[in-house]
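pinned: reference chain
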Amino acid sequence: MQRGSNPVGPRRDEEMKHELQGYLKSGQPAHAEDFHDPEPPADDDPAVATSPGGLQAEVARHLHRTSFPTDTRGLLAALEEEHAPGDLVDAVRGLPEDGRYETPAEVARALDDQAA
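pinned: its structure tokens
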């Protein structure tokens, strides 16, 4: 018999392994973990892309960690798959085609530089 300081019993330990199995195999959140994903914007939400720091939030809302690193084509594909707002997609279309991005913050900076 194995003894340890596990705060949960063996049954709960097996349940937790089962819950994480989909995530561990795919590397992406499973449907059981939807509550961790940000909510999509409502139709009557104000446009956040124009507010200070809002552009990065808007980019991060529609691009997942698994979308990076990527180039401009990858960004467009991910945004269209996530049904991102048209103005955000149009702004990303204006980025250089040879651009390479590691994080949503880099995308937001490039979009800010493009607008200036």
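why pinned: The radius of gyration is 19 Å. The first strand starts at residue 70 and ends at 71.
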